[in-house]
Amino acid sequence: MKYSIFYLIKGEVGKYRQKLVKEVGPKFGERYVLESKLPAHITLKVPFEIDNIKEVEKILSEFVKNHKPSKINIVGFSHFRRFVAFLKFEFSKSALHIQREMINDIKKIKGIEINKFDKKWNPHSTISYGNTKESFDGIWNYLKKLDKPKFELMFDNITIMKKSGKYWRVYKEFKLI
């Protein structure tokens, strides 16, 4: 089975991100993010294949007991290579530490590969993909005209997502305490 590990963005920030997805995608003919039906999130561990998820569940269950929620700030918009536009996050040192420690614990599980994106992590929440330079330029120019978003939220969950058919679904959520 295919899984991934997310931080789910909830509340006001989740609603703000979803509003942007609903505005930007259709406006510029880039509906992929909207149609993927993924909840607002930041990927903590890129997708991986594993037959028995129970060991991952056990590690995360213990992991969250030893970590407290940490601050995250949204500091604006950014992009990857004129392709992906996203909300840019600034993680506190303790929040960054949580992701690194979680990856170190998970890599002990036989069969789970640690990807270069897991190690060189760039926390973001995708708003839209621009499949052409023209659509990306339109998306980016639109976002640049918006007021710079400023939100503070808490990194308070680690959530296993499971791929079911073509969609990702919440499999199990763990709360940082």
What is the CATH class name? Alpha Beta
For the biggest β-sheet, the strand order reads: 2-1-7-8
Helix fraction, binned, reads 25-40%
Any idea of the CATH topology? Cyclic Phosphodiesterase, Chain: A
Rg for CA atoms: 16 Å
Question: In DSSP terms, counting alpha (H) and pi (I) runs of 4 or more, how many helices?
Answer: 6
* Low confidence ranges: none
CATH homology superfamily: Cyclic phosphodiesterase
Number of domains: 1
Percentage of β-strand residues: 35-45%
CATH architectural label? Alpha-Beta Complex
Report mean pLDDT, rounded to a whole number: 92
Based on CA inertia axes, which overall geometry fits?
globular
Sheet bearing the most strands, described?
Answer: 4 strands, antiparallel
Number of strands: 8
Class of secondary structure makeup: alpha+beta
